[in-house]
Amino acid sequence: MDKRNIWSFRFTTASLVLIPVAIGINYLGKLFANILKLPLWLDSIGTILASLLAGPIVGAVSGAVNNIIFGLTADPISFVYAISSVAIGLVAGILAAKGWFDSFGKMLMAGLVIGVSVAIVSTPLNIIFWGGQTGNLWGDALFALLMAQGMPMWLASFLNEITVDLPDKLVTVFVSTIIFRRLPHQLLHMYRHDDKIETL
């Protein structure tokens, strides 16, 4: 995919329909993880799916709007992390355009890259707004342990974040890719940028 196609965003009917669908998937995943107290976020499956279908811009918009809606209706903390969701959509869309979702090994690497990228973006937010914590029970337990050991806050916060983000993004990448590959060919054609994306 060339740069013009990667970054293009037209308000087509397909794109406008995809954004609320992606938001709904994100919202349900987040609620599911919260209810079961999982050591995962599960709030970006729709974002990555949107990036696979329509590119990084649509994915980023889906992720950001999802955080705003979730912040208004369930958890105000989500507002702060809209920028993290934008990063997920952008990175996933770029990697998809470069073929990082077309094999198991590449998907594994994509999940790792997305996880590390989001941890880098989110760690300063955690420190500024929440004293280094993430709000995830499992990650915050690790953070408390590391702080008790005398580790610098920025490092304890980063390890807190990445401990949750890496497994979460690996699961998210695989789930979103499975959904993508099971979509009808006619639907994929609506979002087709080039042959490479169509055959992921």
Characterize the structure shown.
The chain has helices at 3-7, 13-36, 45-54, 56-73, 82-97, 104-130, 137-148, 153-181, 185-190, 195-198. It has 200 residues and is mainly α. The longest helix has 29 residues, at 153-181. Residues 193-200 have low confidence and may be disordered. Helix 7 (137-148) runs antiparallel to helix 8. It has a single domain (3-198), classed as Arp2/3 complex 21 kDa subunit ARPC3 (Orthogonal Bundle). The protein contains ten helices and no strands.
Could you name the key traits of this structure?
200 residues; disordered C terminus; Arp2/3 complex 21 kDa subunit ARPC3; transmembrane helix; mainly alpha; 76% helix
Count of helical regions: 10
| Low-confidence spans | 193-200
- What percent of the residues sit in helical stretches (DSSP H or I)? over 70%
Distance between the termini: 13 Å
Q: Compute the gyration radius: what is it?
A: 17 Å
Tell me the name of the CATH class: Mainly Alpha
In total, how many beta strands? 0
Strand content: under 5%
The total number of structural domains is 1
Reading the helices and strands in chain order gives HHHHHHHHHH
Query: Can you tell me the CATH topology?
Result: Arp2/3 complex 21 kDa subunit ARPC3
CATH architecture: Orthogonal Bundle
Overall form: globular
Could you tell me the mean pLDDT? 89
Q: What's the main sheet like?
A: none
Structural class: mainly alpha
Organism: Lihuaxuella thermophila
Protein name: Energy-coupling factor transport system substrate-specific component
Transmembrane segments: 6-28, 40-65, 77-96, 108-129, 141-159
Keywords: Membrane, Transmembrane, Transmembrane helix
